[in-house]
Amino acid sequence: MQIGDCSLVLQPSQPDLVLNVGRVTLGEEYRQKQQKFQRDKEKKKVVLAACALLNSGGGVIQMEMANEADHPLELGLDLEQALRELIPSSDVLQAFFETRQQGRFFHIFVKSWSNAALPEDNCTKPRICSVSSSLYRRSGTSTICLDLRQAYDFLKTQKRKAQNTLLNEESEHSKILRAMHQDIMESNSPFQVFQSNKIEYGHILPFPESHSVEFKQFSTQKTQEYVKRVIQEYIPAFANTGGGYLFIGVHDKSRRVLGCAKENIDPDSLQRVIAQAISKLPVFHFCSTDAQVFYEIKVIDVFKNENLYGYLIIVNVEPFCCVVFSEDPASWMVKEQQKIVKLNMNEWVAKMMNTDPDLPEAFESQLTLSDHPAYCREQVNHKTQLQQHLFPVSPGRWQYIPETLWMELSSQHKGLEELIHQQVHPASWGILIFSRSWAVDLGLEEKQGVLCDALLIAHNRPPTLYTILGDQDAEGQDYCNRIALTLKQKLVTMGGYTGKLCVMTKVLCLNPNINAVSLEMSSSQIHYPWSYNFVGTQQMESFLQALMIVLLGFRSLLRYQPEKNSYLSNFHHHSHLFVHDLPVSGKATMAMKIRDRNIRLYMEAEEVENVCEDVSGKTTMAMKIRER
Ligand SMILES: [Zn+2]
Q1: What interface predicted TM-score (ipTM) does this complex get?
Q2: What is the DSSP string of 226-265?
Q3: Which of 64, 74, 170, 209 is catalytic?
């Protein structure tokens, strides 16, 4: 992708999103010596890459060092500051970004943007990260660009207003506006000046700047360009903050009318430039109208000693019903795992305002008994319970899940057991989750020649996906990378995993002729920081909970055909159902809540076997049924 003349390239053959931003000068000492133009250009591409990765489940920014240094270098203060501006102010830089130098390359490891990182005390949770909101409002006598949190609050307020759910508050609000408007009409001033046709050069305006009045002087050069820029910022600011007057041709400290000398401007063409600039402002409606920004332009003749000296321009802007942007917000994403795309205004607002509960929340609430006794008992964490049921973590012990599949695989393929053992041996304990194809489990295309895939979740190791091939295959690594990347992104977007994460990959080859000699093809060459490893049971459990949601995360019953199964046909009146074929061919695991009975079911299709347990006074049933 080209941004100006700096290019961002997505690196292929990696199990992670790796954005190559090209050559960058690193280290505060070296960056200080750079030309400002070059420094800003580098900063811009790093920030853009960071924003795109934050919004796309995380990844790695790869830079080639443009300077020589005989000692390891840090990023540089300007780059750090620019990255810090992307994340919530309550967070430290290393919560989202870690750096590591590797020979001539320098890597920034970017964690996924997560709204969970914001304080829980209020519900403002922007869902995406942006370099700029491109949303301006008036604050006192200034025009400010809203930060992400302010932008989110403003969008929410405008949406509520449009939906008229704020009836009372709104009438309060409009009362204040009307009172302010009255003020303006009476004492004054901007309105009277706006009505007049001529004014004396040097006249001191009888009112100061305010939230609804801004004074600007004409610049001496490139008048039209300058006016366009002013319009782009101030007109949305007034429209988003109850309307106002923009005076162009007034000295802001002394309030003296200076105008613009008539030799320097053509008032008609300037009016056209202004009208055109306003018509280009992107507007977003929560209401059902398609209203545009309403404004009037007034050109007032400025006289000096009874002669026409020049012109004063005033733009009066009405309050806007919804939201006016200066331009599309500056926010990027990696789409379809290969393109870096700038979001347009509609996509951005949709992402910001997405009010669907996250899948983990929906999952949790579906599994929660509706009539919890609110007073005394501890809330049972059903997500945790289900995870402990399906993927129990037991420190000090190795588990191969599902056991039946592992037994099948190891008896079918001689040498597999030894091969796997060699791989997992360096770690002391953990879980290995087998599937005949993790690709199929995640909705990807399966590959011929793959005996099985196994996901390793082990103590002091990063999650690692193994693809075991029957024979050597050059495309094995790509296949394994593709699954790993998809899995990682689903864990973040669907499973709500908020930790630092990269699923490493390793391709193994089991050739029966060479009796379990493994052929390791090149795996990820980027050395990730230690924080990408599982250091404790808690971290492993939250990973497995996210994994479980990804695997169980089908929201409807549609996947199921009840007539196939007599047990399921009785369950037509439950509200929601999570169904998934676990990575075991021919078996299904479901978690459901039956609406009119306080029963929570864990189903593992195998055989009929009811297990009842008591959870906070309610009956909970774990049931195994035969499926096919
Ligand atoms: Zn509207």
Answers
A1: 0.99
A2: HHHHHHHHHHHHHHTTT-EEEEESB-TTT-BB--EETTT-
A3: 209
